[in-house]
Write a structure and sequence with these properties.
The chain is α/β, with parallel strands linked by helices and 127 residues long. It is built from five helices and five strands, in the order E-H-E-H-E-H-E-H-E-H. Strands 2-1-3-4-5 form a five-stranded parallel beta sheet, with helices on both faces. It is globular and about 35 Å long.
């Protein structure tokens, strides 16, 4: 009996980053969704039960921090990894409350996407 693939969301306003991560995650067996804005990502979450997401912080409109808080209201138990160009990013308390720790923050571009898988697995194990 085959396992149902996890639903994975990439929220990043840079298309090349989204495409790179999407190709990798699809090769790893994930069912991948992509969004350029938090607003689009929230619509996806309302329609699909997303298990995990990688989230950029600096986005047009709603930023990645607020996105994670709102997404968790729609889909409690969803896990997040931050993928940001801000080397000094520290998750605010509301994001920490969702289980996002310093180990859940990757600085982009991440050259080893297996680090993303490892961070996602750590997030799930901590819940």
């Amino acid at each position: 009996m085959s396992q149902v693939p996890k639903k994975f969301l990439i929220l990043d306003d840079e298309e090349s980053i989204r495409q790179s991560i999407a190709a990798f995650m699809e090769d790893e067996g994930y069912n991948v969704f992509q969004a350029e804005t938090s607003e689009d990502a929230l619509e996806i979450i309302k329609i699909h039960h997303i298990d995990q997401a990688v989230v950029d912080i600096r986005l047009p409109g709603i930023d990645g921090n607020l996105f994670m808080v709102e997404a968790a209201k729609i889909n409690p138990g969803m896990t997040f990894v931050v993928h940001t160009g801000s080397a000094d990013y520290i998750p605010p308390e509301a994001v920490k409350a969702l289980g996002v720790t310093a180990e859940s923050v990757l600085i982009k571009p991440t050259s080893d996407l297996m680090a993303l898988i490892a961070a996602l697995n750590r997030q799930e194990e901590s819940l």
